[in-house]
Amino acid sequence: MSKAVRTTEYIIEKVTPIFNKKGYEGTSMKDITDATGLTKGAIYGNFKSKEDLALTAFNTALKYILTGLQTRVEIGKTPLQKLFKVTEFYSEYYEYTMDIGGCPIVNIGVDANHQNLMLSQRVREIILKWQNEISVLIDLGIKTGNIRQNTNSFSFAKRMIVLIQGGIFMSTTMKDGSYLKSTTKLIDRMIQDELLLN
């Protein structure tokens, strides 16, 4: 690994939690140079702009989340089991994201909505992709006979994500993971009541 690559990775490691906690506008160049111990010139030698750095930091935080989620979901053998693994992952999500400053989708999504078009668009892309992946998982369960035939997969996926993100928001705001744990229990009941075959 070259020195330039090591420097870039070092910068991202140091600034990802800062951008995630403070947002795009709230993170100053002084925050970045203080965290990294590098000059402004050294930062811009590795990133085209603050926006470029913020987007890379968001994608890094997101990769951390998605890797953990995917690892958990892959344990499930059927589409239905995989859905329960999603809620299992999010029941521990508040604690899981503490080191990176909380949920990047909630933090950056709210912050960037009126501040930075590129970041807010990226958050929307991720949410739509997430909805689609859950919907596809439910459709697969319908096809394999594990989930009720009349299920509207996209509608269920949308409600599931709304509840998860609401639980994350409440846990973050109240600094109490129990809000999210209660939310995931509610989603588990939804899965049992609406998706399980009788």
From TrEMBL:
Instruction: Tell whether Endoplasmic reticulum is among the UniProt keywords.
Output: no
InterPro entries the record matches = Homeodomain-like_sf (IPR009057), HTH_TetR (IPR001647), Tet_transcr_reg_TetR-rel_C_sf (IPR036271), TetR_C (IPR011075)
Q: One MF term from GO for this chain?
A: DNA binding
Q: State the name under which the record lists this protein.
A: TetR family transcriptional regulator
Q: Where are the transmembrane segments?
A: none
- Which keywords annotate this record? DNA-binding, Transcription, Transcription regulation
Write down the Pfam families for this protein, in alphabetical order.
TetR_C_13, TetR_N
Please verify whether the record's keywords include DNA-binding.
yes
Give the matching Gene3D superfamilies: Tetracycline Repressor, domain 2
DNA-binding region located at which positions? 28-47
Q: What domain of life is recorded for the organism? A: Bacteria
Give start and end of each HTH tetR-type domain: 5-65
